[in-house]
Amino acid sequence: MFTDKIDAKDFPKMPGEYRDLLVRVLTIQADCEIGGPHLYVDKLLPGAPDAIKRLVVARTAAEEIDHFRKVMDVASGIGLDLTDLLRHSNRERYVDAFRGEIATWEDYAVFGFLIDRIGRYQMEEFEGGSYAPLDAICPGILSEELGHIENGRQFTAELANGTEDQRRRVQEAIDRWYPKGLDMFGHSGSKRAERYIEWGLKHRTHEEARAEYIAEVNPLIEEMGLQVPDPEANRKFF
Amino acid sequence: MPTKTIADIDRELHEIVAAVEHAANWGMSHRDEAAAVEHTLDDCEELIRHVMDASVLED
After folding, report:
1. Which of A8, A67, A172, A182 has a CB 3.0–4.6 Å from the CB of A77, allowing a cystine?
2. Is ipTM > 0.90 here?
């Protein structure tokens, strides 16, 4: 496995496979960072249940925009211009989970609880990785993602402890986002994932990361008295 | 025709993020002042929409 640390000045000297994989991962990461606020700002910034929750939505959106900015900066170091991602509509997002719209508070809560957690898994892949500028932005982004995840967990738990209607609606949101989340890890046995690991750009295979996520998140869902969805239902990638 | 560079966009995004974070934190610490919080939320929304509609890319 490749264990060197690569900087922007080394990038042109790296083999084509490394350059292609780095370009790909930066593009997808930036797309996901800006894709998040595009999902929920329209409806939830004006429509969250109270002013404090609206402020949480605003601050979360700002932090995700800042994550986009940081990834965009890393990309610009290798001559990759990702600014056009700012123009993309939700339909053009790379990852399926970012292609719709979040229009309800329970979907916003569960998105933070389940999907921002996958954002954390993704950033952990880059920590200590071979591309030093990407490694360098991980701690700041991870720290803010942990805040988003905890907000999502608290809001989800609040709804799970709420009225019968709130409980039913938050369970439906879990049922919607759980399979999308598991799919976000990608195909098991992915050859590309093996190449990322070989080049020190990631640490875990898709199936390893997905199994760790399931082991982490299922007990949290059960603690709230909610049902863990069938892990094979409504899935696209296994 | 003047065109924004990545550095220009980076600077502008950075300013927007800082302004929204400052406003959101101010609003949270003044939660009892409903009218002021509403005004703060309007400011946050205007700033964030500048990014969401990609007008941050325009000269």
Report:
1. A8
2. yes
